[in-house]
Amino acid sequence: xxxxxxxxxxxxxxxxxxxxxxxxxxxxxxxxxxxxxxxxxxxxxxxxxxxxxxxxxxxxxxxxxxxxxxxxxxxxxxxxxxxxxxxxxxxxxxxxxxxxxxxxxxxxxxxxxxxxxxxxxxxxxxxxxxxxxxxxxxxxxxxxxxxxxxxxxxxxxxxxxxxxxxxxxxxxxxxxxxxxxxxxxxxxxxxxxxxxxxxxxxxxxxxxxxxxxxxxxxxxxxxxxxxxxxxxxxxxxxxxxxxxxxxxxxxxxxxxxxxxxxxxxxxxxxxxxxxxxxxxxxxxxxxxxxxxxxxxx
Length: 297
Prior knowledge:
Structural class: mainly beta
Number of helices: 0
Number of strands: 28
Strand content: over 45%
């Protein structure tokens, strides 16, 4: 049932920190410290486009709800936008020093959110490239490392270097919950497809499942032996996946919250994961420059 379907060795010339499967399933995007974003066919797994323009490593990549456009953030403090289908550059947003890290498109594709070193979340208008709003939690905050919108558009969550997770109400732009449960950086988070739960992955080697309406910790899960760098929920809501510095990829049953399988194959830490739109396949990338595709459903 679970197997490694394909290995793409040396997919980039350096570490790969981000991967996203486009919504129409025909392409996978990868972002690398080699300063490029690559667009891969999911039929042949050949590289169709190489998007250049960043002059420092690419930290994060996301695609919009149509599957036609992507955004990438970089150590150069710019967010660049491309047309995936045409393979053309669209726009560049100068976020300012340490004002962007991971990026996430809003479900309506109108905005791109990014975390900042100051701990707030910047929301950028895709069409104009202007800053639409800044979500600032009260009190002292640390680097916002990860951001995610809920599928129902109600929430925007960000995970911090200090281990805290802030959840904003997108209708009022106010802080709704401040979730405390991790003791180390939260480098990745995602909502389940029904927007009921939030999954947060941390350097403390745990993934926490939160009931987002009640702001309650449902469970704290651990099967990795080092930092959990990434978490992704399957589109069918049946399972989720984790990637770690222990070089393994875990597959979990969302209902029982039990680890069903551990994949090997990476020779260095796994930075990011992405499910295919039908949830039957999973892509992983890491510091070893490998992209690995798994059959998981």
